[in-house]
Design goal:
With 195 residues, this protein is α+β, with helices and mostly antiparallel strands. The chain contains 4 helices and 9 strands, in the order E-E-E-H-H-E-E-H-E-E-E-E-H. The termini are far apart.
Length: 195
């Protein structure tokens, strides 16, 4: 015969919730009402992973665009030519490329965008158009504004005729005394007008 003791019911108690008892042998729930029983059975199923993957878990496993953080489901996806690990929305990557030509995640430089089809295969290649503001040549000298300390990247600059210091035109106050025949920065103007 069977030497096992009869199956016992184990009570699970939670604060501020009705008591639910689980039967070890049958896995059935006993509760005060039918509605509470249904809610508790869903909780038990979720905890024991017998109900499959929930919709929130499914959303977490799907890939998201690292720029806009939207799920990559209906939009056209793209990768960079140097980094195939990170997938982006094509529109996000195009906008990002107008500012920087570095992968938004791992900062690898790239020169083109690879457009993906629905199966994840490369369907076309879009070269990145170079703009004057984002191209820095290795031999080019980086020049800082002497007033604000930021890079000089515009054509609206002033160069002191005495010390050759460079300023953004917005960073200096232009007064007629400073530029009769030549323009002098504040330091040079004060120096020459002290005597």
């Amino acid at each position: 015969m069977n030497d096992r003791p009869p199956s016992r019911k184990r009570k699970v108690s939670r604060s501020k919730s009705p008591q639910v008892s689980l039967s070890r042998s049958s896995g059935s729930l006993d509760s005060g009402s039918e509605e509470e029983s249904e809610t508790d059975s869903r909780k038990v199923a979720r905890l024991s992973h017998t109900n499959g993957v929930s919709s929130s878990e499914l959303a977490e496993t799907q890939e998201k665009c690292p720029i806009c953080l939207k799920l990559l489901t209906d939009q056209i996806s793209a990768i960079t030519d140097t980094c195939s690990y990170h997938t982006f929305c094509l529109t996000c990557l195009e906008e990002w490329s107008k500012i920087k030509k570095l992968c938004p995640v791992d900062r690898k430089e790239y020169s083109s965008i690879l457009v993906l089809d629905s199966k994840g295969h490369v369907s076309s290649e879009l070269p990145i158009k170079s703009t004057v503001s984002n191209v820095l040549h290795a031999d080019a000298e980086l020049i800082l504004c002497m007033a604000c300390g930021l890079f000089i990247d515009s054509e609206f600059t002033l160069i002191c005729d005495s010390c050759d210091a460079i300023f953004h035109s917005d960073c200096v106050t232009l007064s007629p005394e400073n530029y009769a025949d030549q323009w002098l920065c504040d330091d040079c103007w004060c120096y020459f007008n002290e005597f």
